[in-house]
Amino acid sequence: MITSKDKMMTVRLITTSRADYGIYASLLTALEADPAIDLQLVVAGTHLSKEHGYTVTAIELDGYQIAGRVETVPSDDSPAGIARMLGEATRKFADLWAEIADNTDWVIALGDRYEMFAAVAATVPFNLRVAHLHGGETSLGAIDDKFRHAITVMSTAHFTATAAYADRVTELIGSERSVHYVGAPALDGLEEMELFEPQEMLPTFGTDFSEPPILVTFHPETVATKRNQVYGEALCSALARLSGQYPVVITMPNADTMGSVLRQQFNNLADDNDRITTIENFGKKGYFSAMKHCAFLLGNTSSGIIEAASFGKYAINLGNRQDGRMRSPNLIDVEVDEQAILSAVDILRTKGFLYAGDNVYRKDSPAAAAIVAALKAAND
User: Fold this and answer.
1) Which of 334, 325, 280 shows the shortest CA–CA distance to 307?
2) Whether the Cβ atoms of residue 234 and residue 338 lie closer than 8 Å to each other
3) Does residue 31 contact residue 369 with C-beta atoms inside 8 Å?
4) Is the Cβ–Cβ distance between 59 and 30 less than 8 Å?
5) What are the E-state strand segments in the chain?
6) DSSP conformation letters of 218-230
7) Contact between 55 and 18 (Cβ < 8 Å)
8) What's the Cα-to-Cα distance from 69 to each of 18, 39, 273, rounded to whole Å?
9) Do the Cβ atoms of 328 and 358 come closer than 8 Å?
């Protein structure tokens, strides 16, 4: 049980999904362990959505204090629905900051989600200091790219995953002050992390890993929204064919534009094929266990770009969502096309499925410790 501490430096960390909560894990541990820091979470996005697993319960079970809950999942995931929620989310975050700004030393934001943009935009009139993680990156196939760079400009301190991204942040803000290259926090302590064994996955998550499956995560391309129906059909057709050779585990997409279309396609596919399973939320330990024990990754998620290489896994990256991001040699980029996907799997068979190269997002020293030290130094 986490107990309250004497207030010294109050940090409000914003989390909007299971994905960023997992990335934050080592930083949350480091912040909570520091007696000079009062850590509280601001919870929003799919954490508060029953349809997406209501993952705020995981935060509650972990014992973290919650400073506020902001519901930001749109009633519909059309472009108009996302745009309306963007304005509504900004208003809701403004109300929250009005209540707690006077007792906030740092706000921590990660990445590029529209909810994160709304949260940070609402801090500006309050002159709150924002520490931004994973700035400087590019994902040309998603509208998140615009949100990420805007968050960078509105932030006070910057913690990047590579030196090249630190240079890009410096260009964006016109200064190298407060820009720190720390590496990807999700990779902290990866080798020491206790993960589930393959035989534990079925009773814990209802997914059978006795035979290494294809681990699939495919989010909508929010720049080319009208293509998502076709992309989903091509991917499902390829997975149906591949399921004869490998089991398939699909983690469900985020609340992005047209995400409901893909969710329905994946659910229909799993209903018709007992070799294909969908899962709403593995949690960090479960997802990293799935990554360790899978045959390879397939989709367009950033975990194929950032974490997969550290697990010795190849990733087939589909489409344009991750265009512009730095890549390790474990990536195979293909179009969202049935035959292209099948051909990429044939290439992996010749490689033997084991990747033994470097990860460009890895730094020898822990990212979380560097972030905490920099925030404390800036607060003195």
Assistant:
1) 325
2) yes
3) no
4) no
5) 9-15, 37-44, 66-70, 106-110, 130-133, 157-160, 179-181, 214-217, 248-251, 276-279, 296-299, 315-318, 331-334
6) ----SSSGGGHHH
7) yes
8) 15, 15, 38
9) yes
Residues 106 and 78 sit within 8 Å (Cβ to Cβ): no
Phi, psi of 152 (to 5 degrees): -55, -50
Instruction: Output the tens digit of pLDDT for each of the chain's 380 residues.
Output: 344 444 589 999 999 988 899 899 999 999 999 999 999 999 999 899 888 888 899 999 999 999 999 999 888 878 898 899 999 999 999 999 999 999 999 999 998 889 999 999 999 999 999 999 999 998 776 677 889 999 999 999 999 999 999 999 999 999 999 999 999 999 998 888 999 999 999 999 999 999 999 999 999 876 666 788 999 999 999 999 999 999 999 999 876 667 788 999 999 999 999 999 999 889 889 999 999 999 999 999 999 999 999 999 999 999 988 888 899 999 999 999 999 999 999 999 999 899 999 999 999 899 999 999 999 999 87
What would the two tokens of residue 239 be?
A: 């997975």
Cα–Cα distance, 255 to 222 (Å, whole number): 11
Q: How far apart are the first and last CA of the chain?
A: 29
**Tokens representing 264?**
């329905």
